[in-house]
TrEMBL record:
GO terms for cellular component: dynein complex. One of its GO terms (molecular function) is dynein light intermediate chain binding. InterPro entries: AAA_9 (IPR035706), DHC (IPR026983), P-loop_NTPase (IPR027417). This is Dynein heavy chain ATP-binding dynein motor region domain-containing protein. One of its GO terms (biological process) is microtubule-based movement. Pfam families: AAA_9 (PF12781). Residues 1-187 form the Dynein heavy chain ATP-binding dynein motor region domain.
Amino acid sequence: GQANAWVQANGRERNLMVVSPAEGDVSRSLLQAVRTGCPALLEDVDEEIDPILEPLLLRQVFRDGGVPRLTLGETTVEYHDAFQFYMTTKLPRPHYPPELSTKVCLIHFGITPGGLQDQLLSQVVAFEERELEAKKQRYLVLGAQHNARLKALEDDILSLLSTDGNLLENEAVINALDHSKSAANEIAAKQADVR
């Protein structure tokens, strides 16, 4: 699903190791990832998590002679700090036990009908009207940049307003307010042009 694709896309550059329970003994592959610091993805996880994964989920790393180590099953290996562990499931509505949520971060990648409609529309427009979709993406980026600029201006003003002294006599405050007002008007005009 989407979660699996996202993890694989983000881990590709760091040599993501993809492991499936169907392969049998997953601990050997996971131990290699722990040792080398490669991220590991365990696909197609059921509602019952294999107890052998407990040390990974709890990050039961211990030091032996100053070296971080982790034991999985009967095997202990050196623990590389860059190691990351992901699990995905194909189950549409998995029901995991509450104690699992204390060990992992659960993210639901389900999509709402409205979200699906937006994604499909974007794909159709990208296919049929490439230039229009590219323009939309540029405007989204510009909108985010404008919002970041407005936020920075607000932060500057708040910082200046928190200074001691008479605000009406503080030239820096007056200049910042004038600059912010003109910048906000300029951004509003650009946003109106986009619409």
